[in-house]
Design goal:
By secondary structure, the protein is an alpha/beta fold. It is 47% helix and 12% strand. It has two domains: 150 residues, no CATH class; 149 residues, no CATH class. Strands 2-1-5-8 form a four-stranded parallel β-sheet, with helices on one face. Strands 4-3-6-7 form a four-stranded mixed β-sheet, with no helix packed on it. 36% of the residues are buried. Bound molecules: iron/sulfur cluster.
Length: 328
């Protein structure tokens, strides 16, 4: 297991990562009808690791529950407003006035799970009504979610419905853990050495997701000398998080695995090398799951320890208990 997770495992309790969430997803009766949308995955498995920070913007601006349902509605001038369905009361200004300082104060979150299709919390594909009140295209973004994402571009966001997709789920949780490590690093004080070490830890993970981002981060760090460390750190983490948001493919994983094997080559007897090569090739062709070559690498690392490979986050980007890589 990489040192980065070993370090967290050394603590008596698992890491508690602050992640925002639409409050109704935790089972709070805050929806317009007085109900909730309790999400099993969030309140179950993820709650072991995530310290949920619940927010219900509609309750926060005093709409109460139950309440008149609200929706996104396009005005005659094209502006999209947050409007009560029955009374036509426009809540946009109140929602924006409350949301702006709120989202600015949530900068230390490492992720956010929004309730889907909400005119307040939906991060995409929210239904927009016409000026005449007819349902139109699902092309809107919830007012609060839009302001949160604009103020916190680094923070991974997802909707609870999309978390049912194993690939989106893995990608989201992986990015939450990466941002959590980054925030820890910044809290300890970012130095050039710490930044280079962090990059080394995440090298193969980023390589698997995005070669352009991998190259971009490499270029940024090559120009580190003489630059303000905070500026380089900001540019680095932006490129890193953007690259990791790209869905990983079999080709991307196989490429990272081959680089790991190349690094490992001198330590491994020829028969072991061949086994690993075959396993990576079968994974690339869809004949084996990702767990097969990873298990071999971890097994060989136990027999032939290598500090550089052992620290690679790619080998264990999130806790095993979450079983997030089984779809690969
Ligand atoms: S979707 Fe957002 S605003 Fe609506 S009930 Fe849930 S937390 Fe509240």
């Amino acid at each position: 297991m990489p040192e980065s997770l070993d370090r967290s495992a050394e603590a008596t309790a698992p890491p508690r990562i602050p992640v925002g969430i639409s409050q109704c997803l935790l089972g709070a009766p805050v929806r317009f009808d007085g109900g909730h949308k309790r999400d099993q995955y969030c309140t179950g498995e993820l709650a072991q690791w995530f310290d949920w920070v619940p927010v219900c913007p509609e309750m926060a601006i005093g709409l109460g529950a139950p309440r008149d349902s609200i929706r996104l509605q396009k005005r005659a001038d094209g502006a999209i407003r947050l409007v009560a369905g029955k009374t036509g009361v426009d809540h946009t200004d109140a929602m924006e006035a409350w949301s702006r300082p709120k989202v600015a104060g949530l900068g230390e979150l490492c992720g956010y799970v929004f309730a889907k299709r909400s005119p307040t919390c939906g991060m995409e594909r929210v239904k927009v009504y016409t000026h005449e009140g007819m349902p139109d295209r699902a092309e809107g973004t919830g007012v609060y979610a839009r302001l949160f994402m604009a103020a916190n571009p680094l923070v991974p966001v997802e909707e609870e419905g999309r978390l049912n997709d194993p690939q989106l789920r893995e990608n989201f949780v992986m990015r939450v853990f990466v941002l959590w490590r980054w925030r820890q690093l910044c809290r300890e004080g970012l130095t050039a050495k710490a930044l280079l070490d962090f990059h080394t830890d995440h090298k193969y993970l980023l390589m698997a997701h995005s070669i352009p981002a991998y190259q971009q981060t490499g270029r940024l760090l090559a120009q580190l000398a003489g630059q303000p460390i905070a500026d380089v750190g900001d540019a680095y983490v932006a490129a890193l998080m953007q690259g990791l948001a790209r869905p990983v493919t079999r080709g991307g994983n196989a490429n990272a695995l081959q680089h790991i094997m190349g690094y490992f080559r001198e330590h491994l007897p020829p028969a072991h090398r061949q086994r690993l090569r075959d396993s990576i090739e079968k994974y690339r062709r869809g004949l084996l799951p990702l767990s097969a070559p990873l298990a071999l690498i971890n097994h060989f690392l136990a027999d032939f320890p290598d500090p550089y490979l052992s620290r690679q986050v790619y080998l264990a980007p999130h806790p095993e208990e979450l079983r997030l890589r089984s779809f690969h």
